[in-house]
Amino acid sequence: MLRTFIHPLSITALVAFIIAVLMAVYPTETLHSSLRGLSIWWEVLFPALFPFFVISELLLGFGIVHFFGKLLDPLMRPLFRLPGIGGFVVTMGYISGYPVGARLTAQLYAQRLINRTEGERLVAFTTTSDPIFLIGAVAVGFFHNAAVAPVLAAAHYGGGFLVGLLMRYHERGSDSALAGTASLPRPQKLIRRSRITIALKAMHEARLLDGRGLGQLLQDSVQSALRLMIVVGGLVVFFSVVMEMLTHAGLVAALSEALRLLFSLLGLPAPLADAGINGLFEVTLGAKAAGAAGTGLMHQVAIAAWVLSWGGLSVHAQIASLLSRTDLRYKPFLLARLVHGLLAAGLVYALWGWLAPIH
């Protein structure tokens, strides 16, 4: 009987009810936090992500993804146990930031170009911050010190690369010998053929298989990107309100106090706890708090690297929303984020002697 009352759905319903009550108690704060989340979506996320979503759809329709898949197959398989087509997702994910990697992974899975295990491996290490946000917003905007960008980038993206290497051991027995059109054919008569020729042929075949004209493809790409952006915007606004309500309920302060105690036991500056708790929920708030912590630059950069690599529950909700349309599981992604955060923070300390900014 007790298990019935502590079912995860029951806990979720209770939390939702509490937040609804808090929203009724603090209507002004609810409105302001909603507007703040909407502003972040419209002024930052929409212009940053929408073009990448449209372009990714176009590249899939034109078969360019298949072209890169053929070229990168010999590199991706030995490193990450992924078909070469995953190299395109890695590139786009690292350039354009979360949640583009998950979006492309879900598309490849829907087209049966990768299997479930490969999709879970891929989304686990392609969910990263984009370089513009890392350098412009975090290093320059929050730390007011562009010199921290090299060590922060090395820790964040280096940690992602290490997660990719670790994820190659995820369900090794379920690897597919061929993953749709993404695998490189290796009959003996083709050994001497130019890899470029094979890649161009794959791109042409994919374009014929798609069959949509340029006008229809562009229309479909814009519509699909808009639908996804609305989902992203809704989640950003929702978590902005949730964060505000939890702050007024005193939960954020309680979590910060507990984390301060843990940091003290670990020998870390206690004021970093605020950045850690803010980053637990939302990347921008956590990175901003890290830049203003004033506990020593090395520790501040380390917690910022953790925040960027963890991604915040807002990003997690976006990824979970994308994965819910497929058979890809959220748990491997969650574990990968935890590992990525720890690796990134550790890499800051390991690399600080070589990449530390000059004062």
Structure keywords:
single chain; 359 residues; mainly alpha; 17 helices; globular
Could you characterize what this model shows?
With 359 residues, this protein is mainly α. It has one domain (17-355). The protein has helices spanning 2-5, 8-25, 27-62, 64-80, 86-96, 100-110, 116-125, 131-142, 149-167, 195-210, 214-248, 251-266, 272-281, 283-291, 297-310, 312-323, 330-355.
SSE map:
Elements (H helix, E strand, L loop, with lengths): L1 H4 L2 H18 L1 H36 L1 H17 L5 H11 L3 H11 L5 H10 L5 H12 L6 H19 L27 H16 L3 H35 L2 H16 L5 H10 L1 H9 L5 H14 L1 H12 L6 H26 L4
Short description:
The protein is mainly alpha-helical. The protein has helices spanning 2-5, 8-25, 27-62, 64-80, 86-96, 100-110, 116-125, 131-142, 149-167, 195-210, 214-248, 251-266, 272-281, 283-291, 297-310, 312-323, 330-355.
- Total beta strands: 0
Q: DSSP helix count?
A: 17
Sheet bearing the most strands, described? none
Structural class: mainly alpha
Tally of individual domains: 1
The overall pLDDT average reads 84
Give the H and E element order.
HHHHHHHHHHHHHHHHH
Cα end-to-end separation: 62 Å
Helix content: over 70%
As a percent range, the share of strand residues is under 5%
Radius of gyration of CA atoms, rounded to a whole number: 22 Å
Gross morphology is globular
Quaternary organisation = single chain
Low-confidence stretches: 177-192
